[in-house]
Amino acid sequence: MLRMERGVFMWVFLLAVTFSLAVAYDPLDPTGNITLKWDVISWTADGYVAVVTMNNFQMYRHIMSPGWSLSWSWAKKEVIWSMVGAQATEQGDCSKFKGNIPHCCKKTPTVVDLLPGVPYNQQIANCCKGGVVASYGQDPASAVSSFQVSVGLSGTSNKTVKLPQNFTLLGPGPGYTCGPAKIVPSTVFFTPDHRRKTQALMTWNVTCTYSQPLASKYPTCCVSLSSFYNSTITPCPSCSCGCQNKNCIQSDSKQLSTAGINTPRKDNAPLLQCTQHMCPIRVHWHVKLNYKDYWRAKIAITNFNYRLNYTQWTLVAQHPNLNNITEVFSFDYKPLVPYGSINDTGMFYGMKYYNDLLMEAGPLGNVQSEVLLQKDANTFTFRQGWAFPRKVYFNGDECMLPPPDSYPYLPNFASANAAAAIYRLATSAVLLLLMV
């Protein structure tokens, strides 16, 4: 009986591990994913023409420059005759074709978005943004990317088309896991006057979810804390982001004046400023002022990467008082309520054309704002670090917070060491008085 129970336990454990690796779950964005939709809009002599649409349904995680790349494996011997709004990175071996040469003959093509400014005859709607896709919570209209592909040597009907397999989405680095393609009800399209609707000849979807451990072995940001009631600044924990980038550069180094030092590399390798935490991003939360009915906090985000500008950045904070937020002065703000009545999470992001670009490391490499929050007499306190955030995310990745016992404490609450010293001093004084 014991052996049987152990066997069942191991089976359940392996099933849980397999499920956790295949599917990522974000408790602050439980329905967030990127959905790839393939709509077959016409049949051709040897295949079909499809519009592929990438919808980013993630509330606060976007795809930033240098953009997405998408790959898959063909089920048969398909080729890509032509593309509009995107291109395959390699043509492959097309030597068997004598007349028209396909755009791509590879068994596993890799496709990237076109850059802005390409000729109009190479564009379709929602294309040509360099692979940059906004998060749905920040800008729903820009949370989509599309391209058109003409596929040959494939089936020419719903019964003979074989769905592509093994989808891989880089956005731009690893982190996304894509499921299999599934046939769904055909997409319905409306004409511009909305008086007629048509539908795709065939539609299938692919769902991709994000996992931070898959994207990076270490965190990519950290949090430091300070307050008006304590002169101590709690820094980011040492090596918060792993200290794996040993080739850092000092902020006053003469190398920074070298031409091309700020140019991004193809492998996206960072050039970090030498710090104790060695993170590309530091978020500082400062408890600034205390009023009768309100309190005020300042949020500052600093970029320590000399090779990267963060476009359309997002910052998510979890704090119980965000349900009574009164005003955000220099950022845009949107509450995130994934569980209905629980309103303790919000997304901060830059104002368009003002501070939605976080510049590379240096004098301009920071953005900041202040937040005014109304007090709830039943819950508000400055004790035990209540005024500091519970969780912080930058661009969808969770940041490393300092340990709770290092938070700035109120002056009338002495630390354990200070209390012990006072006790020893008082004891010595009593003994001295008894001896006199």
If you had to describe this structure to a student in words, what would you say it looks like?
Residues 220-408 form the COBRA C-terminal domain. The structure is a single chain. This protein is mainly β and 436 residues long. The chain folds into two domains: 27-214, Sandwich (Immunoglobulin-like), CATH 2.60.40; 217-255 and 268-406, Immunoglobulin-like (Sandwich), CATH 2.60.40. It is built from three helices and 26 strands. The strands form six sheets. Strands 1, 2, 4, 7, 9, 10 and 13 form a seven-stranded antiparallel sheet that branches. It has a six-stranded mixed sheet with strand order 15-14-16-17-24-20, with no helix packed on it. Strand 14 and strand 15 form a beta hairpin.
Integer-rounded radius of gyration: 27 Å
- Tell me the span between the first and last alpha carbons: 76 Å
Mean pLDDT level: 87
Overall 3D form: elongated
Per the CATH scheme, the topology name of the largest domain is Immunoglobulin-like
Main sheet attributes: strand count, strand direction, barrel closure? 7 strands, antiparallel
CATH architecture term of the largest domain: Sandwich
Task: Give the ordered list of helices and strands.
Answer: HEEEEEEEEEEEEEHEEEEEEEEEEEEEH
Tell me how many strands there are: 26
Strand and helix map with partners:
Elements: H1 2-22, E1 34-43, E2 48-56, E3 69-73, E4 79-84, E5 86-88, E6 110-113, E7 144-152, E8 165-170, E9 176-178, E10 182-184, E11 188-190, E12 197-199, E13 202-210, H2 212-215, E14 221-227, E15 230-234, E16 281-290, E17 294-303, E18 310-311, E19 314-318, E20 325-328, E21 331-336, E22 345-350, E23 357-358, E24 366-374, E25 391-394, E26 397-398, H3 416-435
Parallel strand pairs: 14-16
Antiparallel strand pairs: 1-2, 1-13, 2-7, 3-6, 3-8, 4-7, 5-6, 9-13, 10-13, 11-12, 14-15, 16-17, 17-24, 18-23, 19-22, 19-25, 20-24, 21-22, 25-26
